[in-house]
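Ligand: ANZ. Inputs:
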Amino acid sequence: MSERDEQVGYDVHATEAKWLPVWEKLDPFRADDDSPREKRYALTMFPYPSGDLHMGHAEVTALHDVIARYWWLRGYEVMNPMGWDSFGLPAENAAIRNNEHPATYTYANIETQAASFKKYGISFDWSRRLHTSDPEYYRWTQWLFLKFRERGLAYRKNSPVNWCPNDQTVLANEQVVDGMCERCGAEVTKRELTQWYFKVTEYAQRLLDDMAPLEGTWPERVLTAQKNWIGRSEGAHVDFVVHLADGSTRPLTVYTTRPDTLFGATFMVVAADAALAAEIVAPEQRAAYEAYLDEVRRATDIERLASDRSKTGVFLGVTATNPVNGEQIPVWASDYVLADYGTGAIMAVPGQDQRDWDFAKAFDLPIVRTVQPTEGFDGDAFTGAGPAINSANDEISLNGLAVAEAKSTIIAWLQDKGFGSGTVNYRLRDWLLSRQRFWGCPIPIIHCPGCGEVAVPEDQLPVVLPELKGADLKPKGVSPLAAAEDWVNVDCPQCGGPAKRDSDTMDTFVDSSWYFLRYCSPNDETAAFDVESVRRWGPVDQYVGGVEHAVLHLLYSRFFTKVLHDMGLVDFVEPFTALMNQGVVINQGKKMSKSLGNGVNLGEQLSEFGVDAVRLTLVFAGPPEDNIDWADVSPAGSLRFLQRAWRLSGDVASPVGADVAGGDVGLRKVTHKTIHEAEALLDSHRFNVMIAKVMELVNATRKAIDSGCGPADPAVREAAETVAILLSLVAPYTAEEMWERLGHEPTVARVSWPVVDPALLVEDSVTAVVQVQGKVRGRLEVSPDISEADLEAAALADEAVQRAIGDAVVKKVIVRAPKLVNIVV
Ligand code: ANZ
Ligand code: ZN
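Predicted complex:
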């Protein structure tokens, strides 16, 4: 025992050691599929198994556990599962560094983290534990891939992708930071590669529409991030005609969000790397174009779209006809237009678009303003709103029209003339899911020289990831699986001829896009998930996790859910009904980092202050969404509070079940008010305020024992039991210990939420004055929060008041609750 523990008799670590095995045996949080109680599905984002738990895990699970435990107390059947997102980069990199197998590293870390979570006292249902790198799990990831493919939602295409020449692998857009590889810092280039994609674009509109019911239960910034990522824009396709060098013509369609500016389109730009550019370039410009293309291939999308980058380009030697005024405008190629967005070509309107302005200035091209800039404007392109100018031909005039009106007018005209049409466009691209890496879920496809792509038959799943013991797993541009001769060479399931397995593995985001469904029937060997179980438990009622997943993981999970809904396998379209993003634990105003040396080690905090004090500190620090600066909080203070609460339980002198009816009313009122307020605070996730209320209750109870009604009053027992129950949400060990000292059997985590007696919520009464014709005729003792209607009724029913009214007719009653009623007759 430490000195501090001795002073108070509460040994934190002994308490942990005592209850852990008891809970292990009681298994109080196992979700019963057949329970008649209403279900609640509480989910926290599952971790990567990299190292042991850190402060971030401690925070998110402590917050999440408040909700899960509260739901149990409120009588719900709660499913709160835990597992590991165990494929992926961290394990693979560590394995390469340490010359050890990714599986060894992964499963060792999982065991470490699992033990830590258990000790940390989170109310997980461990019977549902899963690991995405287990063949029992990824068999179904593969099955889902095949189902998506059957529906045309998984396909292979050749397209330019981000390529790190150093790591020899493709990178997701998110792994390219300022044009450099996030891992090694090498300059990222583009490579034409055949890769697997999920057709998430087909669900773009539904991904937008289905967000409406999430307003209010998801953080606003996450919804905004999703909307921006999907990037819906309304505009038009406008058909230009290009006059080629050989005298022929061909149509050139552009996508624009500003068809109202068409009269200001003074040139066109085709993406330099679009096939179209190579097709239309005039012979005398071909050499210049090809030289430019070489240059472009070395830049990334991010660089290409950066507005502060000086514009480069090359004239293609041809012109196009602007359909609105018949003008011949030059067609250029440049890298600021992307090949795979819109139609890969734009009409350039330098008067209204800054990038077009910069390009026009760089190459001395004409500029025509088609929107009247606001007075005093002296910038370049005017992107604001204003009336249209310089926009008329023989048939229509947009001049004077506001932007929206000008848009609809020109779209109608274009449609009428067959020059174009109104359209909707999305910035969202299909999800590139294949990776040239070892530690991932193998793609269940076989490539046959005769039959092409052949799906691995369902009864041959899983395609097990070979061990490749001792093999070099360093990225070499192709997956290490391609070199595993025994594994990669197979007979074609269709023709029986020699064929090869697809050697890529799936992005780990695929694994995590459906794990919340698997938890409903984690051991099902016949299906990815049991449809009935998902109907019972789904959707997730509360999801908790970091805002770093604001876009990808959530978007992909939403996409998966919608596809599975269309397959008739789930009966909801949104997987997560409510979402909470916790803040970040920082130290001394800065993100914790090794280089700053300001890291806070969870293990050290736990051994110094104990699990409960750390959990309490994290939950008490502020609203869940706020960052927590460890330098500003006091786990020592938390521990002192827990000790104070614990001492109460030893001071209670009334027996278990003592009739509280005659107990001290003052203390009982505090107790019942605390419970009542806690309900609203927990429902609105203001956990820190809830804890403040419990602290007040502890103080009130202490006062009642020491200088009030004394320890034998049953109101003291009621108060102390309430403290134990409320504390069980954040400090399970202390609460359990209190519960036992109060004479109860474990576990306090599964008792019923205390019932509030409304009579005890009434504050001491106030006196309401009743006037008739301006004269005081009565006084009423009423509750301070009485309603106007109740007060009026009480006033009119009062005998003295009725006497004063007599036979007169009541004309008007003015009520100022709770103090005054004025009756005019
Ligand atoms: C003319 C115009 C005038 C435009 C104006 C904008 C402002 P969002 O909202 O992102 O969909 N654009 C179209 N395709 C492009 C491509 N492949 N690469 C780069 N830029 C492209 O943006 C659509 C606008 O981005 C389109 O509207 C087009 O420029 C440009 F005052 O057309 B706009
Ligand atoms: Zn074949």
